[in-house]
Amino acid sequence: MGTSLNEILSFNESFVKFKQYEPYITSKYPDKKSVILTCMDTRLVELLPKAMNMRNGDVKIVKSAGAQVSHPFGAVMRSILVAVYALKADEVYVIGHHDCGMSAIDPDVMIGNMLERGINEDIIDTVKYSGIDLVEWLRGFGDVSTSVLKSVDMIRNHPLMPKMTPVHGLVIDPNTGKLELLADGNSYLEDNNSTETTV
Ligand SMILES: [Zn+2]
Fold this sequence. Notes:
The chain is an alpha/beta fold. It contains 8 helices and 5 strands; from the N terminus they run αβαβαβααααββα.
């Protein structure tokens, strides 16, 4: 059983009453001017910001299963663009993690689970015949590094991303919080600039 709604609401009442929010008061603009795209994994809820020395008010955090940008015009990409254009973030971090649930997702098994939980087979067919490849949509990834680099590439080359915004790719260990750098957005920009000037 998860935490029940009632437990949350009664905790919340005392949280507000005793002003436990006070240490967290900040503005909507990220002090460290960054946006992080990471996974919704439970182990990262507190660990990731702590391991990066990020506090309330420092960064925008966008979460999706597997830290994936699955569609260039989906909600994840939109959130990143909003962070950059409306909320003054000028650096993007894509942070995947080892042992990610999305690397173990089998779309066929998941569709089987949907059927078991009462989704009618006709619905699955309707979705299919509406032009949606459900298996492709639900698919995770085999290798976290490949997946992070794919998201980095999609964000860097998104037609609406400012070209001078660094986009970094990292992998975090969900137990120790250790970060591993896969793609340094600054050196990518420098390389691109130097090629431009030499050509
Ligand atoms: Zn994950």
